[in-house]
Amino acid sequence: MRRYAALPRARKRLLREALLALVLARAAMLLLPFRRIAAWLGTPGTESEASPTPEQIRIAQEIGWAVAGVARRVPWDGRCLAQALAATRMLRRRGLEGTVTFGAGRDGGVGRESSAEFSAHAWLQLGPCVVTGGPGSERFKTLTTFARRPQ
User: Fold this and answer.
1) Rounded mean pLDDT of 102-131?
2) What are the beta bridge partners of residue 117?
3) DSSP symbol at 46
4) DSSP one-letter string for 90-141
5) Mean pLDDT score of the chain, rounded to an integer?
6) Contact criterion met (CB below 8 Å) for 65 and 42
7) Which residues are CB-contacts of 50 (< 8 A; sequence separation ≥ 6)?
8) Strand pairing partners for 58?
9) What count of Cα atoms within 13 Å lies in the side-chain half-sphere of residue 122?
10) Alpha-carbon distances, residue 95 vs 16, 17, 91, 150 (angstroms)
11) What SS3 state is found at 147?
12) Do residues 123 and 61 lie in contact, with contact meaning Cβ atoms separated by under 8 Å?
């Protein structure tokens, strides 16, 4: 709590927004079929604009920081998909569209491939900037991406 109290007001607001976005993401994951969540994310196989401005990247990095920080402290599963959904919501509130990528891979798997466990991962990018889910995402083969088409 001391670290939170020492933060600037704008960062505190961002952390509170991230908490609300994670609550909404978790509720959506529990209550809605994936097809509804996917429709909200955008069109399968599309990606957002590839060249955000430096200011847009700064905003995305701040959002990523807030979502990751809050997700580590919530009492529910706040891992990759919840973080990608929450950060997508936060980006959209600021008029920015990111790309949510779903990937699959194998964990473990020393030696025979059959000994490895299947794993899935979701991450959010704004152009080249990985907003959430970045560490380790290179181990996953992309299955699909979701983004809203430019208007």
Assistant:
1) 77
2) 107
3) -
4) HHHHTT---EEEEEEEEES-SSSGGGSEEEEEEEEEETTEEEES-TTGGGSE
5) 90
6) no
7) 127, 128
8) none
9) 18
10) 19, 16, 7, 12
11) strand
12) no
DSSP assigned state of 67: H
**Could you say which DSSP state residue 115 is in?**
G
The encoded tokens of residue 110 equal: 């020393």
Which CA distances in Å does 85 have to 21, 22, 110, 147? Answer: 8, 8, 33, 12
CB-count exposure of residue 148 (10 Å: 0-12, 13-18, 19+): middle
Total H helices, total E strands in the chain: 5, 5
Which residues partner with 126 through β-bridges? 129
Q: CA 29 from chain center: how many Å?
A: 13
Q: Which two tokens stand for residue 130?
A: 């990985």
Q: Please report which confidence band the pLDDT of residue 151 belongs to, taking 50, 70 and 90 as the band edges.
A: low
Structure tokens at 77: 């599963």
Q: Name the amino acid, one letter, at 88.
A: T
pLDDT in tens, 60-96: 999 999 999 999 999 998 999 999 999 999 999 999 9
Give the global pTM. Answer: 0.88
Most trustworthy range by pLDDT among 43-52, 101-110, 142-151: 43-52
